[in-house]
Write a structure and sequence with these properties.
The chain has 135 residues and is mostly helical. It is built from six helices and two strands, in the order αααααβαβ. It is extended and about 60 Å long. The termini are far apart.
Length: 135
């Protein structure tokens, strides 16, 4: 007698996916920290400064437990995204960097969009840092 797939899945606890979820949430942190340390080392940044800069990169993961209940309780996630987009202010000075080994077409589209919409009083600087040796 063979078991059906539905009967096997139905016996699993719904909590079985929780460790996998937390593991998956940690992957972006590992990628950001590892790549930033490698990049800073190759740029010749001191270990003290690397610790300072990567410490600031960890901030979103630190404040998430305090911020997420407000997002869930007060409003929908979609409304929060719309509200936060109002805080993206194109009246401020902007510096945009690109570090890639691929085509810069999408980067140029972003540059053109910002040039078109930025305030007259603000400055906009952008830097093409394509890694041509690898490309």
């Amino acid at each position: 007698m063979s078991k059906s797939i539905n009967s096997t899945c139905a016996k699993r606890s719904p909590w079985a996916w929780v460790p996998t979820l937390y593991f998956a949430q940690g992957l972006p942190y590992i990628a950001v920290m590892t790549l930033s340390v490698i990049m800073y080392k190759r740029l010749g940044v001191s270990n003290t400064d690397i610790a300072l800069y990567t410490g600031w990169l960890y901030l979103p993961w630190v404040i998430k437990p305090f911020w997420s209940p407000f997002v869930d309780i007060i409003s929908t996630k979609r409304q929060w995204v719309i509200i936060m987009q109002w805080f993206v202010d194109l009246s401020k000075n902007i510096r945009l960097f690109s570090q890639t080994t691929k085509s810069l077409d999408e980067f140029q589209e972003i540059v053109e969009y910002i040039k078109k919409h930025i305030s007259q009083d603000a400055t906009f600087e952008y830097y093409d840092t394509i890694c041509r040796q690898v490309a």
